[in-house]
Amino acid sequence: MPDYYTTFTAEETIKCSEEEFNVLVKSIGIEKGVKIDGGEALTATHEESALSVEFSPKENELYIYGEQNASVDAIPAKFVEELGKLLKIRKLPFLEFGVAFTCSKARPGSHGGDAFRITDGGKLVMAERTWPEK
Question: What letter would DSSP give residue 69?
């Protein structure tokens, strides 16, 4: 039986303070991040969407991704709103994410992709793909 996976990753890291990271963590319903990599980084994962936020205090950088069974539709609206505020502070119009749909077996229709952006206005926008008529 094949296993199907959906993952997403931000196209870049963004500058972030620990206080800003904590606001994002709370927006996914978690009280505080967990230390990883021997205390070099902090992370938190929203269970329903598999959205993870990872913060490196050393570089003051934030990385956002969703592993294995991620669901873009289940990303909390409050997180999208708070990330939008951070993007506005950083003067970034959006943060773009690539989405991968994969399977443990190469079956018809088992692999694909998509993209979405979270804007500085606090909106999640899916990419629009159109095919030429001919």
Answer: B
Does residue 132 lie in a domain region? no
Mean pLDDT, residues 78-89: 98
Q: How many domains does the chain have?
A: 1
Domain, as residue range, for 31 = 4-126
Number of H helices, E strands in the chain: 2, 9
The answer to whether the CB of 21 falls within 8 A of the CB of 30 is no
Question: Distance (Å, rounded) from C-alpha 107 to C-alpha 39?
Answer: 41
In sequence order, the 6+-apart residues with CB closer than 8 A to the CB of 79 are 24, 27, 28, 46, 51
**Is residue 134 in a domain?**
no
Mean pLDDT rounded to a whole number for the chain: 94
DSSP H/E element including 83: helix 77-89
Question: Packing angle between helix 18-27 and helix 77-89, nearest 10 degrees?
Answer: 160
Nearest by Cα to 74 from 14, 19, 22, 6? 6
pTM attached to this predicted model: 0.91
In this structure, which amino acid lies at residue 74? A
What is the sign, positive or negative, of the torsion defined by CA atoms of 82, 83, 89, 91? negative
